[in-house]
């Protein structure tokens, strides 16, 4: 058993550790998700995922237990449909509606959140000015053959001059 973890700061705050066959990262869906989105969640995130249904459970009109049941029925329905070779992404809404005919709490959840969409724009967009400034810095550093320099960087309307080193990048 290894009781220490090697540090590799060249990759940022990163620790090297033998995780055997465990994934080092697992997707998490949280914030505004509900049973009616199950086909999207499983398609885009896969089976090995953490689904945190806060309001999608607690906000169920028949109570928390009903919300938890609706989410589990939706999950198991999508897994069964997928395992039966159904295209759950295209037919997901219809599959859930069919299942809701046999599960009142799922029907109630689908009705409650029927207008909730799963259509969001990414908030992780590149900062083009910062990327260009970083590329210029790398080019200049490579031309000089040094690991540190002073560079003028303009990422907004303001221009600043500061020492830049590899540790800062």
UniProtKB/TrEMBL annotation:
Q: Where is this region: Disordered?
A: 135-169
Question: Which InterPro entries is this protein grouped with?
Answer: RuBisCO, RuBisCO_lsu_C, RuBisCO_lsu_C_sf
Cross-referenced PANTHER family, in alphabetical order? RIBULOSE BISPHOSPHATE CARBOXYLASE, RIBULOSE BISPHOSPHATE CARBOXYLASE LARGE CHAIN
Q: Where is the composition biased (Low complexity)?
A: 146-162
Q: State the top-level EC class.
A: lyase
**Alphabetical UniProt keywords:** Chloroplast, Lyase, Plastid
Q: What is its EC number?
A: 4.1.1.39
Pfam families attached here?
Answer: RuBisCO_large
Q: Does the keyword Plastid apply?
A: yes
Which positions carry the signal peptide feature in this UniProt record?
none
Q: Give the species.
A: Karenia mikimotoi (Red tide dinoflagellate)
What protein name applies here?
Ribulose-1,5-bisphosphate carboxylase/oxygenase large subunit
GO MF, one annotated term: ribulose-bisphosphate carboxylase activity
Q: Which stretches make up the Ribulose bisphosphate carboxylase large subunit C-terminal domain?
A: 6-113
Could you tell me the superkingdom of the organism this chain comes from?
Eukaryota
């Amino acid at each position: 058993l290894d009781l220490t973890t090697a540090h590799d700061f060249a990759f940022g705050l990163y620790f090297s550790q033998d995780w055997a066959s465990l994934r080092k990262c697992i997707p998490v869906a949280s914030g505004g998700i509900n049973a009616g989105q199950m086909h999207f969640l499983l398609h885009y995130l896969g089976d090995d995922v953490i689904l945190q249904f806060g309001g999608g459970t607690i906000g169920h009109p028949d109570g928390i237990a009903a919300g938890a049941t609706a989410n589990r029925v939706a999950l198991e329905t999508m897994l069964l449909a997928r395992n039966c070779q159904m295209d759950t992404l295209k037919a997901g809404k219809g599959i859930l509606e069919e299942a809701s005919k046999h599960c009142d709490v799922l029907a109630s959840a689908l009705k409650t959140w029927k207008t909730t969409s799963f259509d969001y724009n990414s908030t992780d967009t590149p900062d083009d000015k910062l990327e260009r400034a970083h590329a210029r810095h790398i080019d200049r550093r490579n031309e000089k053959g040094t690991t540190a320099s002073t560079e003028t960087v303009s990422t907004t309307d303001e221009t600043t001059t500061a020492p830049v080193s590899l540790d800062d990048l």
